[in-house]
């Protein structure tokens, strides 16, 4: 039995008295790919924001990697190994691919600002270690040929891959992906799915992702959690969820 890496317990969240998430509990096992699905406004992004400490739930607990948190904080989530990509790509668009990926290594930097400014002490080894790690991720996601390109000049699908690279550069235990395949054609979606699976296999990374394309979700995920109006209406393997009448009623019949 694989222990959960992440467990949400009785999580509720409201915005100005309006409930966005109601009493949600589920567990994500170490090393699995878990998809959060549900209609627009179901609470999926809010839940990711709770996991990585951008939003604090009104009630409930977040258990992560053996520690329990009444509220997660964004900096704590990052130092504990939770990385995130966004629905609207959040890269430094005027910087190169390599420099963007290097920002994913910031938390691993050991030297202080003075050492870095003067390029002395730990700063010298630090820089080469961070650069090597960034280059490894760039190789892994096969974006080598664009490593010196300015991000804004790249097509959308590639920018999505660079954002994944930056998240992976932090060597996360848990990777949160908010619609990693949004706006992609089927070929690009298959490629991105392949990279997510490779990440799971190669590094054992646990993944929680939001995706609207049910075909992709069913192929890619080990576990699917279904939300509707802030409530959990399904939780199981892709096959279990596919057969769940509540899920069919809430989601699978709804066209996005
Ligand atoms: N910062 C906020 N302030 C006020 N209301 C918010 C905020 N963030 C989310 N909401 C509301 O909470 C509910 C859930 O939104 P959320 O973005 O989490 O849904 P979602 O399932 O991710 O939707 P989508 O698939 O469209 O991205 C919605 O009613 C939304 O309007």
Automatic annotation (TrEMBL):
Domain ABC transporter: 6-254
Keyword Ion transport annotated: no
A molecular function (GO) term: ATP binding
Keywords per UniProt: ATP-binding, Cell membrane, Membrane, Nucleotide-binding, Transport
Keyword Transcription regulation part of the UniProt annotation: no
Gene3D superfamilies with a match to the protein in the record: P-loop containing nucleotide triphosphate hydrolases
Pfam families tied to this protein: ABC_tran, BCA_ABC_TP_C
Protein name, entry field: ABC transporter ATP-binding protein
Organism (species): Methylobacillus methanolivorans
């Amino acid at each position: 039995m694989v222990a959960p890496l992440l467990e949400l317990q009785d999580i509720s969240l409201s915005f100005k008295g309006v409930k966005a998430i109601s009493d949600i509990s589920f567990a994500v096992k170490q090393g699995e790919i878990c998809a959060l699905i549900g209609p627009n406004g179901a609470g999926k992004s809010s839940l990711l924001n709770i996991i990585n400490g951008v939003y604090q739930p009104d009630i409930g607990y977040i258990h992560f990697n053996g520690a329990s948190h009444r509220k997660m904080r964004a900096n704590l989530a990052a130092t504990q190994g939770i990385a995130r990509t966004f629905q609207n790509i959040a890269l430094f668009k005027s910087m190169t691919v390599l420099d963007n990926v290097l920002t994913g290594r910031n938390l691993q930097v050991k030297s202080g600002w003075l050492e870095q400014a003067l390029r002395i002490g730990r700063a010298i080894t630090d820089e080469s270690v961070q650069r090597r790690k960034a280059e490894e991720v760039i190789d892994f996601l096969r974006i080598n040929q664009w490593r010196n390109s300015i991000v804004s000049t790249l097509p959308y699908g590639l920018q999505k891959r660079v954002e994944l690279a930056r998240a992976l550069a932090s060597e996360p235990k848990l990777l949160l992906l908010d619609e990693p395949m949004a706006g992609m054609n089927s070929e690009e979606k298959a490629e991105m799915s392949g990279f997510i699976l490779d990440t799971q296999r190669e590094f054992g990374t646990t993944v929680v992702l939001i995706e609207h394309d049910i075909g992709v979700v069913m192929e890619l995920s080990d576990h699917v959690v279904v939300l509707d109006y802030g409530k959990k209406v399904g939780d199981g393997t892709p096959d279990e969820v596919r057969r769940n009448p509540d899920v069919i009623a809430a989601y699978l019949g709804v066209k996005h």
